[in-house]
Amino acid sequence: MIRINEHYLKLKASYLFADIAKRVAAYQQGKPNRPIIRLGIGDVTRALPEACITAFHRAVDEMAVDQSFRGYGPEQGYDFLRQAIAENDFKPRGADISADEIFVSDGAKCDTGNIQEIFDVNARIAIPDPVYPVYLDTNVMAGRTGSYRGGRYEGIVYLDGNRDNGFIPSLPDASVDLIYLCFPNNPTGATITRQKLQDWVDYAAANKAIILYDAAYEAFIRDDDLPRSIYEIKGAREVAIEFRSFSKTAGFTGTRCAYTVVPTSLMAATASGDTHSIHNLWSRRHSTKFNGVSYPVQRAAEAVYSDAGKVQVSELVDYYMANADLIRMAMQDLGYDCIGGKNSPYIWVATGGDSWNFFDQLLEKTGVVCTPGAGFGACGEGFVRISAFNSRENVTEAMDRMRRALA
Ligand code: MLT
Which residue owns the Cα nearest ligand 1 atom 4? Predict the structure, then answer.
């Protein structure tokens, strides 16, 4: 009989957010009339910005006419979008990134999950704890870990986040090859300063390691001193890949558009010591396994950078950040310590005790869904994540219910 990839058997039975959805569905069956408020998975609730919708419609109309119809596009993305990204997301921040270093894709989840396959199966991987589960699970699937024991996979160098370090992990003691970092952080909402990020870049350069930098939440940074891109940091072009997304920034979770930056100066070696361009490998992988994001979606994403788009996106971000303020203040009033929520749409709340138990109790008593910290790793135990992505009415109602139930 054909054999399976047995590394999959090391994974926990289901993906965190699928697990939560199952529990919520079971709860809803028992209480069909109780309106649930979802502050669990970070899924946006507001409509796409008008500028994006207008561009989207116009592009769909182009597809209706033979003369302007488009079939396969360039796998790496249309030039109009790659240029707009380079001009608007990097140039103004002094980050030296050109359009041809940008790979447009259908999601940062896919890209952060797929990127590991261009690296050696024996590469030593450093992963923060708590962490967005995709980084870890995809390395488990690829066979880079041993078994799961005591809440952790053997063979991974875990970078512990905790109250003492403000969920900014220290540099690893051991030398590693690939380092996953995410700032503003999912799940904790913690942010990193320029100096701390410089330390990571310097570490990577000294150890010939590569940083996989997930900046999907950079649009939520309100403090101008914080870096939005790792390429604002000296030396990063030689050691880092960056992932960005239109999902949370502009409401594209259902529309799907993101991008990954792989500088042409990023190199890695073969076993015999020859160096190769990571940009070329990723480009090869992308054109073999991906046929590009649809033309109308790329036009909609391009509109994010129009004058009207910029205003509308910033209104969207402000809206969710006002929700984050409400959540943070309500949780603090209830006596909980909070991290995040200031430059991030996630509020990381120290509840103490078993986080799945807190999740169940909160759902039972209030009908509000959060995400248990333990789902993001052993260091997440004792915390829950509350997402600011919902309507103002729902967030206000959720906080009222929590005040009544938890005070
Ligand atoms: C989250 O809630 O952590 C994110 O929405 C998941 C994702 O972006 O895939």
Answer: 42
